[in-house]
Amino acid sequence: MNSITILSNGQFPTEPYPLYLLDAAEGVVCCDGALEKLLAHNPSARPLAVVGDLDSLPEELQRQFSGLVVHESEQDYNDLTKTMRWVLREHPEVSEIVILGATGLREDHTIGNLGLLMEFTRLFDLGGRKVTMVSDYGTAFAITDSCDLHLGEGRRFSLFSADNTLQITSEGLQWPTDNVVFDAWWKATLNRTVSPIVSLHFNHPSSALVIVD
Question: Cβ(194)–Cβ(174) under 8 Å?
């Protein structure tokens, strides 16, 4: 299996692109109560697994899908992290992971899950795997070093980091990030691509989050 889609229990997608990613997925893994939303969208759907502490999964569905439920009761990590861990453990061959439904509905979950994209680069050995978080409003992904991003011209672009020692010089953005000090979340947001390729140059390896739409 080359790619797996993780469906979290936030705002279920309604736009064509994220719905296409869900419907065309080679395999879907649900975070806890997200199974209920998947079945509302497609009653015949059968995920690879349902992972979580089961606090939001109705008992009827727990019984109906008992063979697919992976009960992770520890509370050190949230359901999305537990699901990511399961995917990497059970399907080490996967090269692409798409996360849907991880934002919306609750601001705390949205902020936490977006931050997890950066944390995943430290928690897991992702190798060359592509991990993206897609919603009706954009696509987010983490980067850890200098890179060229083939995004296309005229896209909204925001860049975040929790590392105030990180300096990122850029090419292909309307407002270069060369002098940005990453000591506040808003510092490199609301930018726009002015070239098909955006080049970012890190002064040292670190974690940063890119959101484009």
Answer: yes
Note the pTM of the prediction, 2 decimals.
0.96
Strands annotated E in the chain: 3-7, 28-31, 49-52, 69-71, 96-100, 130-134, 139-143, 147-150, 156-160, 168-171, 188-192, 197-202, 208-212
Inter-residue contact 77 to 83 (CB < 8 Å) = no
DSSP state of 122: H
**What do you get for the CA distance between the two ends of the chain, in Å?**
28
What's the half-sphere exposure (Cβ side, CA atoms, 13 Å) at 200? 30
Position 73 scores a pLDDT of 82
CA distance 18 to 22: 6
Q: Are 19 and 13 in contact (CB under 8 A)?
A: yes
| CA angle, residues 154, 204, 194, in degrees to nearest 5 | 10
* 96 residue type, one letter: E
Element (H, E) at 201: strand 197-202
Mean pLDDT, the chain, rounded, equals 96
Percentage above 70 pLDDT, the chain: 100
Give the whole-angstrom CA distance, residue 20 versus residue 18: 5
- Can you say how many angstroms the Cα of residue 163 is from the centroid of all Cα atoms in its chain? 20
What pLDDT is recorded for position 74? 80
Contact 21, 5 (CB under 8 A): yes
Contact between 82 and 54 (Cβ < 8 Å)? no
The tokens of 115 are what?
Answer: 């931050």
Count CB neighbours of 64 within 10 A: 13
